[in-house]
Amino acid sequence: MKTPREIRDWLAALRRWGDERRRERREMAAEFRRENAKFHQYLRDHARLHRQHHGGHPGHYPGAGPDPFWPHHHHQEELRQRRQMQARYHQFSRYHRRLRFIRPLILLLNLTIWYLIFRYLGVRIIAVGFAILISVGGIYELFFLRRLEKQVFNPIDQLKKGVEEIARGNYQVRIECDVLNDLTLLVASFNDMAEKLQESEKLKSEYEENRKTLIANISHDLKTPITSIQGYIEALLERGDLSEADRQKYLRIIEYNTAYMNRLIDDLFLFSKLDLDKLEFQFETIAVRDFMADLLGEFRLELEEKQVRLEYEDRLDCECAVWIDRKRIHQAIRNIIGNAVKYGPEQGLAIRAVLCRREDWVRLELRDNGPGIAEDKLPFIFDRFYRIDPERTKDAISTGLGLAIAKELVEAHGGSIAVASAPGAGSCFTIELPALETQGGDGNETDSDYRG
Fold it and tell me: Where in the numbering of this chain does the Histidine kinase domain appear (predicted)?
């Protein structure tokens, strides 16, 4: 049981906390009004832009991005939470006003009752009444203090211990509170804070581990070509009896390793920009049918020189547009096709590209008849520096970043990339990008014929 001094201190602290909560509620109400005004202004601006670009018809407009309504959904969720908190605040205010207004009436009623008892029953009955009241008051105070300790003191003590654990670095601490009052919200906020701190610490550890792995991979991938270049340069300088054919061979190897290092540095630079969200995109609305036909036609000419057959099939029933950066999507598809060429068979490699529509997405499927990917390696296929088999690249430049970059580029467009494969059955890479609009009906919904 708390001492009277501790109870007074706790009550004073509780009053200060209540004042702070009321001030926070007033600030929250003001912030809610400001955010509500901003939201309505956003809707007015959005409607004005639609009228300017589409004559009042709904749809996407240039400059809106793949999904111009994403701030609306996020803002709606915030408004819903703020409305709930505002409703709780108004409910608390009503209870507080009722209690404040009823206190004078209760005091006046008590004075009237004591006056009538004193006038008609005398002093003796008043003494008996006082004794009863003191006894009842003592019992009530006992129950009140126990209730106060359970609903106020214990949760605050738990919060204090939880804060001390957080200060020690223990982010796994959680507080259980079985009472329903304003402290319940405070305890829930504390648990949310501890959970976010724990997630932040976990992400920090993962980033640190990834950083160490990245440095180790870069060191390994740079050391190998540098050692090779150094060895062949020393051979060219020290051996004067080399034939012209050997000299040309050494120079080609040096050129290959130099190109590999240049490609690795370019990929690392691009990947670091993607990782830091600093890569600039030049988005534009593009008719996907013409864009894919031109792009895959360009790839077909390049692959014919390598004895690789590329087939392209357009299954779109109507024209539709996408909001993309031509250069970045070109690079993502090139990385996927290049990966198929590196790990595919020496002779008879065939790649089949299928363009189709699936609900609100434009889908490009890239299938090959290569050796396929083992099931245990599929989860790591988009990891940086991951190579399924470093020995089977057919002397092609492979940094292990191609598919990781392709995934980041596609996701930066609001799309997704997936792979289905099985050993001996080839692989199917699927790219999905959000479709902006369709003319003349819905597109043909087509699932991949191959699912590994």
Answer: 217-437
